[in-house]
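I'm stuck. Please check this protein.
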Amino acid sequence: MQDLLDDREQEIVGRVRAFLEERVAPIANDCWSRAEFPFDLIPGYAELGIAGLPFEECPGERPSSMLTGFLAMDMARVDPSMATFFGVHSGLAMGSIGRCGSAEQRERWLPAMGRMERIGAFALTEPEGGSDVSLGLRTTARRDGDHWVLNGAKRWIGNATFADLTVVWARDEDDGQVKGFVVGKDAPGFTATRIENKIALRTVQNADIVLEDCRVPEADRLAEARSFRDTAAVLRRTRSGVAWQAVGVMLAAYEIARRYAVEREQFGRVIAEFQLVQDLLVKMLGNATASLGMVVRLAQLQDAGMYRDEHSALAKAYCTTRMREAVGWARELMAGNGIVLDYDIGRFVADAEALYSYEGTREINTLIVGRAATGHGAFV
């Protein structure tokens, strides 16, 4: 599949892969265990020059969707937490500004974000609203002269404890439509508190956000965000990235389990010689290969302008389900050693649970696909 990339794209993937193996892999378990973010890695990510690549509105040369998919896959293959950090900044935050901002707003924010001098977050999910957020968004925005006043709460907002700016989605009290606002970390009335006691993506700094009469200038309202359809357009693009991340997690699970199988001895020989062990490895490899084929085709549809909601929904639902199976089989193959960080797989088992749920649960994505397949909506 990687042969589908051109020479320049292959070189970019090679550079990113080397950075991940040399800088991220050695510290991934320690950061995850301590639930601490490795801020010293941000300059290294910046030097790679890949922030904002998925969006044609962002600075720099427009890459293929295949390239951005491989980058998401390789990041998750090493550390799903850091893949999530990067996806929130580059995909959700930069993507929202690129898709919904005016030319002036894109020029004001995106270059510094592309250099990762300013880090972004994306605030949509609420304490009482996840899958139903399109209809049940409770955070409000009220126009007051040259400002907007935001009130409400957000939850599970990645990067928000340290992000320089957060894209906050709120419902306009006047017309009832969902609009986007870029809120600085020092804005009065904006508070972000880290969520503790997570068992997945522990390196990611998720936050609870409270907005209390938070005043945002009209100039910081995303000019082209006029309804939830614009929010959904951003999510349509980033949802495919989660499917690619799921493939990366599957490949990691397979590689970890295979390495273990050819080294671990029981009953006088390596366990790779046992039929039931080979069965688990082949099922993992099958899941990863089938899912990779799906996301590759998804990338081709994106670049051909034939990409629809049901395509990304099917890929996200299918690939994350196969991922959940694969990490479980890897853990099974490694028995008790699979539940300690020393052997890596335990981190992927835990992180897979977060990927399975974020950017749309399997059930919600199933209903999106089902509506397209039958012509009948089955949403509540």
Q: What stands out?
A: The chain has three domains: 2-114, 120-220, 228-374.
